[in-house]
């Protein structure tokens, strides 16, 4: 697809797309709103949440639950909160919506499809549709070609414009890009342990004092997501939808640690084709995708940064690399059992959640799916 990004950028800056945020009062919804403030292409036109918040201003509805490091955006604070279940009413106020609703998986599937059927594209942070065969689950730098299944989804939904697209789980962002950068060397077996921040559970230390000086060796559902979602990301678009890859086989443990933001991964990997350390690092440094080539507004200039110091990456020093949209990697070395081992770090609520969904929306806009 030939895209004149300069023309699109000029057009959208003078006539921004109207966007809604579903689940706007929760932590991920708050992150969406903070990222959308001053966005060159998008303008928040509607915020929606549960019936408890309906009719209140956003500032009243969120109250003392605002968790972002910046104040509530001035353009948002006086917006009246809509009831997310009044689908036609909310959809009529937006060109597309971001979904961060807090419901059961069945409820999320139903409400996202209902919004899509109103001819409103839905870009979701939720996991409910990650295994729906005709719903693309995309990291823009890794598998943008999966957006091709949207045409199958539209046929199923009976829509011209409406569809659902999702981003993958936050826990995979710190190692899947590395595996993608090394694709030509054919990774076939991976063991990973993720050390995950408390904001991944929508919490702060004030709300979860039990996490101070503590580690919890279990996060419900995370290990299955971390093992299976990369295979869907590496899968192929077939007639019936996305068919997951069979390799690499991934074994994962997920641990909650006393960190506010930032998921760290300790990764061991076997490669079918041999490569030396210098070449592997070179592949990381050179790796980029459609987001960088198009210079999308939220895209990091440098997607993956290799750090030479033995004590890097560190959450305190490196989690905000490229405004939280880049991935940092370090401690690449040969292993006695596996071929290589490394440490990866990504920001779980930026690259891993709202920021990743925003980047997907930007690519969908550039490719003409959102208009």
From TrEMBL:
SMART domains: Semialdhyde_dh
MF annotations from Gene Ontology: aspartate-semialdehyde dehydrogenase activity; NAD binding; NADP binding; protein dimerization activity
Alphabetical list of InterPro entries matching this protein: ASADH-related, Asp-semialdehyde_DH_CS, Asp_semi-ald_DH_pep-lack, NAD(P)-bd_dom_sf, Semialdehyde_DH_NAD-bd, Semialdhyde_DH_dimer_dom
Enzyme class: oxidoreductase
Keywords: Amino-acid biosynthesis, Methionine biosynthesis, NADP, Oxidoreductase, Threonine biosynthesis
Pfam families cross-referenced by the UniProt entry: Semialdhyde_dh, Semialdhyde_dhC
SUPFAM superfamilies for this protein: Glyceraldehyde-3-phosphate dehydrogenase-like, C-terminal domain, NAD(P)-binding Rossmann-fold domains
Gene3D superfamilies per the UniProt record, alphabetical: Dihydrodipicolinate Reductase, domain 2 (3.30.360.10), NAD(P)-binding Rossmann-like Domain (3.40.50.720)
E.C. designation(s): 1.2.1.11
GO biological process: lysine biosynthetic process via diaminopimelate; methionine biosynthetic process; threonine biosynthetic process
Catalytic residues (UniProt): 170 (acyl-thioester intermediate), 263 (proton acceptor)
CDD domains: ASADH_C_arch_fung_like (cd18130), ScASADH_like_N (cd02315)
Semialdehyde dehydrogenase NAD-binding domain mapped to chain residues: 18-150
Pathway(s) annotated for this protein in UniProt: Amino-acid biosynthesis; L-threonine biosynthesis; L-threonine from L-aspartate: step 2/5; Amino-acid biosynthesis; L-methionine biosynthesis via de novo pathway; L-homoserine from L-aspartate: step 2/3
Family from the record: Belongs to the aspartate-semialdehyde dehydrogenase family.
Name this protein carries in UniProt: aspartate-semialdehyde dehydrogenase
Species for this entry: Johnsonella ignava ATCC 51276
């Amino acid at each position: 697809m030939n895209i004149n990004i300069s023309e699109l950028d000029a057009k959208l800056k003078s006539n921004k797309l109207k966007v809604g945020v579903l689940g706007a009062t929760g932590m991920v919804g708050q992150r969406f709103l903070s990222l959308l403030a001053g966005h060159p292409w998008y303008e928040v036109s509607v915020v929606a949440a549960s019936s408890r918040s309906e009719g209140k201003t956003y500032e009243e509805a969120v109250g003392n639950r605002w968790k972002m490091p910046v104040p509530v955006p001035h353009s948002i604070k006086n917006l009246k909160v809509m009831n997310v279940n009044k689908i036609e009413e909310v959809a009529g106020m937006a060109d597309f919506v971001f979904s961060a609703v807090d419901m059961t998986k069945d409820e999320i599937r139903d409400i996202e499809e209902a919004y899509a059927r109103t001819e409103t594209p839905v870009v979701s942070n939720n996991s409910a549709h990650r295994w729906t065969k005709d719903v693309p689950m995309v990291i823009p730098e890794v598998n943008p070609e999966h957006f091709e299944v949207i045409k199958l989804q539209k046929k199923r939904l009976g829509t011209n414009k409406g569809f659902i697209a999702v981003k993958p789980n936050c826990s995979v962002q710190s190692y899947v890009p590395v595996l993608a950068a090394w694709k030509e060397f054919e990774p076939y077996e991976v063991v990973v342990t993720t050390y995950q921040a408390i904001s991944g559970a929508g919490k702060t230390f004030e709300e979860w004092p039990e996490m101070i000086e503590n580690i919890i060796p279990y996060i419900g559902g995370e290990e299955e997501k971390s093992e299976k979602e990369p295979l869907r990301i590496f899968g192929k678009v077939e007639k019936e939808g996305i068919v997951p890859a069979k390799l690499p086989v991934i074994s994962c443990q997920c641990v909650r640690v006393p960190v506010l933001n930032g998921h760290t991964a300790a990764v061991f990997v076997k490669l079918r084709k041999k490569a030396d350390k210098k070449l592997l690092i070179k592949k990381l440094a050179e790796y980029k995708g459609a987001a960088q080539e198009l210079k999308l507004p939220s895209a990091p200039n440098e997607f993956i940064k290799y750090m030479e110091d033995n004590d890097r990456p560190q959450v305190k020093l490196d989690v905000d690399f490229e405004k939280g949209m880049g991935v940092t990697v370090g401690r690449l070395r040969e292993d006695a059992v596996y071929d290589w081992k490394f440490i990866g770090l990504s920001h779980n609520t930026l690259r891993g959640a709202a920021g990743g969904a925003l980047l997907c929306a930007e690519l969908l806009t550039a490719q003409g799916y959102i208009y």
